[in-house]
Amino acid sequence: MRDVTRVPRGPLPATIGGAVDLSELPCRSVLFVYPRTSPPEGAPEGWELIPGARGCTAESCTFRDLAADFAAHDTAIFGLSTQGPAYQAEAAARLHLPYPLISDAGCSLAAPLGLETFTFEGVTLYRRTTLVIEAGAVVHRFTDIADPGGHPAKVLKWLARASS
C-alpha cells in the first residue's frame, strides 16, 4: 500500500554505536519492526501462544542472509524493537547481523508511524510490520506477516518491482 507518513525526527540508540535518526537516512531503507529476539536459551513460556510473535530470530537471520541482495537495490536494512541497546547488541553479535538494530524502548515511534503494540510479561512490544522509507517518509508498509522467515524475500521482490 502507498503511504505518505513522515518519519519523526529524533535519534534512537543503535547497535552500530551512537544513534540513528530514521528521518535522515541517506538512502532507501527497509525498517523491519519485530516484537523481540529470544535469548540464547529460547523463548519464554507462553511466547509461542501469541499470534504473530514467533519468528523474530528467523526474520532477522533471513534479512542477514539477503543483505547483499538488498544492497544491490541500494537499500539499507534496519531492525527495530523495544528491547534495550545492550540486549540488541548481544543479539546482533550472536546472530552476526550486518545491519543495525535500533532500540525504541519508549515506543516513541508507535503513534507517529502507526505501529501496533502488545504487552507480554509487563513489557510493551511492537507487532511485526515492515516499512520502506525514502527521504524521511514511509512509502510502503507490510503488515500481516504470516511467515517471518520468508518475509524478507517478499520485501526484496517488492523492491525489485518498485525499482523497475
Query: What is the SS-derived class?
Result: alpha/beta
Total DSSP helices: 5
Overall mean pLDDT: 93
- Provide the gyration radius in Å: 15 Å
Shape: globular
Q: Which sheet architecture does the biggest sheet show?
A: 5 strands, mixed
Distance between the termini: 17 Å
Describe the structure concisely.
The protein has 5 helices and 9 strands. 27% of the residues lie in helices and 26% in strands.
Give an overview in words.
There is one protein chain. The protein is α/β, with parallel strands linked by helices. It is built from five helices and nine strands. The protein has helices at residues 56-65, 67-72, 85-95, 110-113, 151-163; strands at 11-13, 19-21, 28-33, 75-81, 101-103, 117-120, 123-126, 129-134, 137-142. The mean pLDDT is 93.
Helices and strands, with pairings:
Blueprint (H helix, E strand, L loop, with lengths): L10 E3 L5 E3 L6 E6 L22 H10 L1 H6 L2 E7 L3 H11 L5 E3 L6 H4 L3 E4 L2 E4 L2 E6 L2 E6 L8 H13 L1
Parallel strand pairs: 3-4, 4-5
Antiparallel strand pairs: 1-2, 3-8, 6-7, 8-9
Which descriptors apply to this entry?
164 residues; alpha/beta; 5-stranded mixed β-sheet; two-stranded antiparallel ribbon; 5 helices; globular
